[in-house]
Specification:
Shape: elongated
Mean pLDDT: 88
Oligomer: single chain
Largest sheet: 5 strands, mixed
Strand content: over 45%
Order of helices and strands: EEHEEE
Structural class: mainly beta
Strand order of the largest sheet: 3-2-1-5-4
């Protein structure tokens, strides 16, 4: 299974639609909590986590993502 690190570009809804760029990780939902923890140890710069299959571009609770770029990816095994 693949874990993908991406750079997202968007705006925070509050306050005042401030633009931002941040690093995020997209992980398979099938990963156990311990495997997710291991992935996040490797990608310490990840500010957001998305589940694979969920939309990335679009509105979220406190921010909206306009686009993203793939930085890198890695293979993980189910634990």
């Amino acid at each position: 299974m693949r874990v993908v690190r991406i750079r997202i570009h968007g705006v925070y809804k509050v306050p005042f639609n401030n633009p931002f760029t941040a690093t995020a990780v997209v992980m398979p939902v099938e990963l156990s909590d311990s495997m997710r923890d291991e992935v996040l140890k490797k990608y310490k710069d990840a500010y957001y986590v998305f589940d694979a299959g969920n939309p990335i571009v679009g509105e979220h609770n406190t921010f909206e993502v306009f686009s993203f770029d793939v930085i890198d990816d890695m293979e993980v095994a189910l634990a």
